Amino acid sequence: MDATARRAFESTVLAHVDSLFGAALRLTRSRAEAEDLVQETLVRAYRFWASFRPGSSVRAWVFTILRNTFITRYHRQGRERALAEGLEQEFAAVGEGPIAAPPSPEAATSQLHLREEIDAALQRLPPDYRMAVVLADIEGLSYKEIAEAMECPIGTVMSRIHRGRRQLHSLLYRHAVDHGLAEEPDAPVSLDAYRNRAASARS
């Protein structure tokens, strides 16, 4: 790779390192494994930079490499693939948006607990769902970019997202019932209600 290509790689691909690590961490649930996954992804991206089509989405391209690297690594280790579908509003509620003031210790504990439960539920989704959750609801990729990264039609992406969100709702509601935070098994519950009840139970 010549100096011009190297500069182009560094100014485009490396700008997504934080997003790649966040996605890798959600997929592996291990900082060490996530760092290894991102490092291998970047090595492959650097090696195949010449195959990138100018004008196309760098983000979708590098997440495709992350996805394929993840599948290769975990198939090799005897683990199932993890691709996902997500929940926009739910992750936005516990996401990285600006806050007006630092949360109280009780609110911080409740938020941490909710994050842990969402992560646990995410791990229980069918293999073809987890990656889409990460890409759509955490990394904010468009349907088109997710379709490119997951190498499937946009309609398939939309279907997986819808089904994945329903399954996550069901898993989280089941957890709420098991912990006395909900009483009606057939009633729908939002994560806002779940979070509020969890906070009340700890106050």
Features:
Arc Repressor Mutant, subunit A; Rna Polymerase Sigma Factor, Chain: A; RNA_pol_sigma70_r2; WH-like_DNA-bd_sf; transcription regulation; mainly alpha; 203 residues; single chain; 10 helices; 67% helix
Secondary structure: elements and pairs:
Layout (H helix, E strand, L loop, with lengths): L2 H10 L4 H12 L2 H17 L10 H19 L6 E2 L3 H6 L11 H19 L4 E2 H9 L4 H8 L3 H25 L12 H12 L1
Helix pairs in contact: 2-3, 2-7, 3-4, 4-8, 6-9, 6-10, 7-9, 8-9
What does the model show?
The chain is mainly α and 203 residues long. It has two domains: 1-80, RNA polymerase sigma factor, region 2, helix turn helix motif (Rna Polymerase Sigma Factor, Chain: A), CATH 1.10.1740; 82-203, Winged helix-like DNA-binding domain superfamily/Winged helix DNA-binding domain (Arc Repressor Mutant, subunit A). Helices cover 67% and strands 2% of the residues. The protein is built from ten helices and two strands. The N and C termini lie far apart (58 Å). Mean pLDDT is 75; it is low at 79-103.
Structural class: mainly alpha
Number of helices: 10
Number of strands: 2
Largest sheet: none
Would you identify the CATH architecture of the largest domain? Answer: Orthogonal Bundle
Radius of gyration: 19 Å
Mean pLDDT score, rounded? Answer: 75
Summarize the structure.
The chain has 203 residues and is mainly alpha-helical.
